[in-house]
Amino acid sequence: MAISRKLLNEGEEVLASMRQHPKALFPAIFALVVLLAVGVAVQTLIDQHVVTLVVWALVAVGVLWWVARPVLLWAVAVHAITDRRIITRWGVLTRRGHDIPLKRVSDISIEINLIDRPFGCGTLIITDASTDGTVYLHDIPHVERIKLLIHNIVHELPDAHPRTEGV
């Protein structure tokens, strides 16, 4: 689950490393239950061998697309907060990522809906000063603690533009 050391600069320290809360896999689990129910229902209700084989083949394709793919994508996605930036990496064949230098963070907010509350997760919304605008990190475990961590780090950073008195 930890971020790769090769993504870090010299002297950079990882303060938190996480992936999405397993709650993000609930749609995949629901799809698995529905697909298996369809396969079993067809096998028990229809007494034709060819139809049963075709349905199970379609169930297998559905399991690969709606279950295995989301689980794999969940397993390879990682978010990390270092003392210098927020790092996000995801993707299987094509790795994608987003780095936000903490000096550019202009706003940090969270969104915890009714479903997120029992699981202790939520969406972390980070607005930076660049043209990219806003980054949404969904289903982050302990999102309030992570928001506080980022806020404290940003607050402790030296100002990028020192103020001059009397100007």
Automatic annotation (TrEMBL):
The keyword Hydrolase does not apply. Residues 80-147 form the YdbS-like PH domain. The keyword Cell inner membrane does not apply. Keywords: Membrane, Transmembrane, Transmembrane helix. InterPro entries: YdbS-like_PH (IPR005182). The chain crosses the membrane at residues 24-42, 54-81. Pfam families: bPH_2. This is PH domain-containing protein. It comes from Nocardioides flavescens. The lineage of its organism: Bacteria, Bacillati, Actinomycetota, Actinomycetes, Propionibacteriales.
